[in-house]
Amino acid sequence: MSAAISSAHAVSGSVATLRSRRATRIRTVRSIKVRAEAEKPNFKGWREIDIKQVQLGTAKIPSGIDEEIFCSSLYQWANGLTTSGQNMPFALPQRVDRLPTGFSMAFLVSDPKGEPGTFVSCGEIVAEVVDHPLQEGQRVLMINGTGQVMDKGRLIDVDTVMQTFPNAIRNAVGMATKE
């Protein structure tokens, strides 16, 4: 009899624990939202941030490198991923464009409204070297995603690209280091 009572008590105790955890989680989410609204950073360029993108990564750039070589190296890496099918097996075709301080990699799908054989971008990974928003004189590589890249798991190729990014950054820093 005591075993039946203790197991019933344990079950009701675990339900109470779950309710407590759920309430704590709700409070945590609310406090994060309130804190985010109350503590908007006031650094230069805050109002210029595009809300329709998600930050995929950030890397500090050492001060003693040639940024032009660094950006060219990253562009060549990204372009090499897309032009050689034996490198990476991607589900979607891609297009890489050179930017003044980085590159843009677009994931392409068939245009349902256009002619057969035409493609449109369904999402992009944009990597650019910019000034650090909080530290004067520090440069960082900002990697942002737009379009369907913002929906985690929607474009499976994004994870593949992002997993190979750290080695590409290390190699680009090595190539761009002034000696």
Automatic annotation (TrEMBL):
Per UniProt, residues of the DUF7148 domain are 53-176
Protein name, entry field? DUF7148 domain-containing protein
Matching InterPro entries: DUF7148
Organism, scientific name: Micromonas commoda (strain RCC299 / NOUM17 / CCMP2709) (Picoplanktonic green alga)
Q: What is the lineage of its organism?
A: Eukaryota, Viridiplantae, Chlorophyta, Mamiellophyceae, Mamiellales
> Which cellular component, as a GO term, is one annotated location?
chloroplast thylakoid membrane
Which one Pfam family would you cite for this protein? DUF7148
